[in-house]
From TrEMBL:
GO molecular function, a single term: glycosyltransferase activity
Signal peptide: none
Stored CDD domains: Beta4Glucosyltransferase (cd02511)
InterPro entries named in the record: Glyco_trans_2-like (IPR001173), Nucleotide-diphossugar_trans (IPR029044), TPR-like_helical_dom_sf (IPR011990)
Pfam families the record matches: Glycos_transf_2
The entry's keywords: Glycosyltransferase, Transferase
Residues covered by the Glycosyltransferase 2-like domain: 5-126
UniProt-recorded name of the protein: Glycosyltransferase
Domain of life from the UniProt record: Bacteria
Enzyme Commission (EC) number: 2.4.-.-
High-level lineage: Bacteria, Bacillati, Bacillota, Bacilli, Bacillales
Amino acid sequence: MTTISLCMIVRNEENHIGKCLESVCDIVDEIIIIDTGSKDRTKDIARNYTNQVVDFQWIDDFSAARNFSFAHATKDYILWLDADDVLLEEDRNKLKKLKSELQDTIDSVTMVYYYAFDDHHNVTTSFRRNRLVKRARKFKWIGAVHEYLAVDGTIINADLAVTHTRVHSHSTRNLSIFEKRLENNEVFTPRDMYYYANELNDHQFNEKAAVYYEKYLSLQQVWKEDAISACDKLCDVYIRLGDNTKALYYAFKSFDYDSPRPELCCKIGYFFLADSQYQQAAFWYERALKIKCVNENWGFTNQACSTWLPHLQLCICYYHLGDYEKSYEHNEAAAQYRPEDVHVLHNRDLLQGILKNREKAVSV
């Protein structure tokens, strides 16, 4: 049977690391914890699961730390996780099955990453990552921040998800690393430029974020998924800046890189809905629902934009168009994902009242 080394880099993760390791410790054959400077109980908790807890001096370089962790692995394959990741029971069973069946001709296995959730526990952001790699191939991490694992060869997409558990907050850590690199006159790769723009966007430095997203899109060689995402984020930036013309321009510009995505269709629908153009808005929200989201998508996907959100907006559109039956149908479709949403409950009461009154009028 295939053997697996779990490699992790951690710092001040006492609130998460135990749950992470508990979810996977009986499946992997070796656990390597690289600590980059914890001041809490992270290392003590990790030692309950492994004696391989190694210190690493932090040098503002995530790839250096991850490559250091990989260098300590001794098993056939390397699985990497962050301390706030877990495998849920269904995915634990899938990993066990994968481990028993994995052929040594496979160089990398990708898994879906459930990165963010709404307040009704629906996945809102997901994407794929190379998650389990053959140690003998000596794959390397690249990039000081927002690092990626450069792999090639035979890659398979597993029907298996890693679940992120942290409540997100925008730390200045990554932004500071980028700023230091700029001060040192380091040349940014296209990927660096895109992720630097993301950090600026997250911290509401709107004008500067717009500059770097547009610089990125002006490059000749860009990854289409990041380009689409840049258009999506530029749309948001210009909405905040009060320039809806530019915002709508970038929503449509995303079509230059690939077929329409649900996220951008919902953005376009938003503009028409805000302008009380309900038929046009309905067209774009209907389009968002018709686009099938698949787990093979490597880019960031907001699953709300292909599930409950278009239905809820279509409820509004058809209400204003006077089609109360359709409005009710879409509201109930949204309720399948958000049964306790106050907007859904309000819409239901309103529309049921309208439809009952109409039935009474017809019967009279």
